[in-house]
Design goal:
11 helices, 11 strands, two-stranded antiparallel sheet, 3 domains, alpha/beta, D-Maltodextrin-Binding Protein, domain 2, about 20% strand, Arc Repressor Mutant, subunit A, single chain
Length: about 300
């Protein structure tokens, strides 16, 4: 009978290239991993590796079954997780990813509330690119992702639940040359450096214009954004001390906008919103901890 441990040992050998390295990564003896591999090959009736003095190379059959082995381990992990959910454990771990554009909006007020209510739950926060986070969701390395939905709409196997629309705007310093224009032409923004939390994706209102200017050799567009940074105090310092502009949630700079030290510029024909959403693996059971965090987020943004 093929066991879960045998599959784990097999994948470790493939990843590390030798039984010795795989055994070290698994905190097992060389003998134990060798015995496990030999038993698996006996059960399957085929060789999984070609052994030589230079190392171990997976056979064609071994490479053919790698994805199936990984899927089995993911499915078993889901079964264990759902059993824990059924028990409604009050402890455990909640693994959340956040989009760079809304990181502080999400965490600043909701995380302290969640921790105060559920101090026994360990929380792991991740921030990365949409490609990395999508892969992490499918690999069950994350429980949920809170981010703008634009970069994830075309990703297969993901469920998207809208939390709220967060107004975005072009933010500049007081006295910026753009302020004097009676009508804000989107093309004019490309003449200035951009500091922003993320790249301008295909779902962004400015993307078609940016693409068009790139195709016609627009000056400076190839370096847009000039600075990628998800720390809004740093973004504020950059735009205060230069002619750089930022595309950011208006909520992040509400106090500075009221005081007049920063100015919000909008287009008459282009509305910019961050569609803050809960993004999860489709048809995967949501843990009580994840649901509790989402409920706190909903309560927070309903009052904003």
């Amino acid at each position: 009978m093929i066991t879960i441990k045998q599959l784990q040992h097999l994948l470790a050998i493939i990843e590390h290239g030798s039984i010795h390295s795989a055994a070290e990564s698994l905190f097992l003896t060389h003998t134990a991993v060798t015995r496990s591999l030999n038993k698996l090959e006996d059960d399957l009736g085929v060789s999984l590796f070609e052994r030589s003095k230079s190392g171990m190379q997976p056979t064609a059959f071994c490479l053919q079954i790698v994805d199936s082995c990984r899927k089995v381990l993911v499915d078993v992990g889901d079964i264990k997780r759902e059993a824990e959910i059924y028990q409604n454990l009050s402890g455990g771990e909640l693994r959340i990813a956040v989009g760079r554009a809304a990181r502080s909006l999400i965490l600043r007020d909701t995380l302290p509330v969640f921790h105060a209510r559920y101090p026994a739950i360990a929380i792991n926060i991740t921030e990365n690119t949409p490609e990395y986070l999508t892969e992490s969701l499918h690999g069950r390395e994350l429980d949920l992702l809170l981010a703008g939905s634009g970069s994830y709409r075309n990703s297969e196997g993901l469920a998207i639940e809208l939390l709220c629309n967060i107004p975005m705007s072009i933010i500049v310093r007081e006295g910026h040359p753009l302020i004097a224009e009676s009508e804000h032409d989107a093309n004019a923004f490309f003449n200035y450096p951009l500091v922003a939390p993320t790249m301008i994706g295909e779902s962004h209102p400015l993307y078609p214009l940016m693409k068009l200017k790139q195709e016609h050799g627009g000056q400076g567009v190839g370096q847009w954004p000039s600075i990628m940074c998800s720390d809004y105090p740093t973004i504020e310092n950059v735009i205060r001390t230069s002619d750089a502009i930022s595309i950011a949630p208006v909520m992040e700079f509400s106090q500075q906008l009221q005081q007049g030290s920063l100015v919000s510029l909008d287009f008459s024909d282009r509305q910019m919103n961050l569609e803050l959403s809960v993004i999860e693996v489709e048809n995967r059971m949501r843990s009580p901890a994840a649901q509790a965090f989402i409920d706190i987020c909903k309560a927070h943004f309903s009052g904003v």
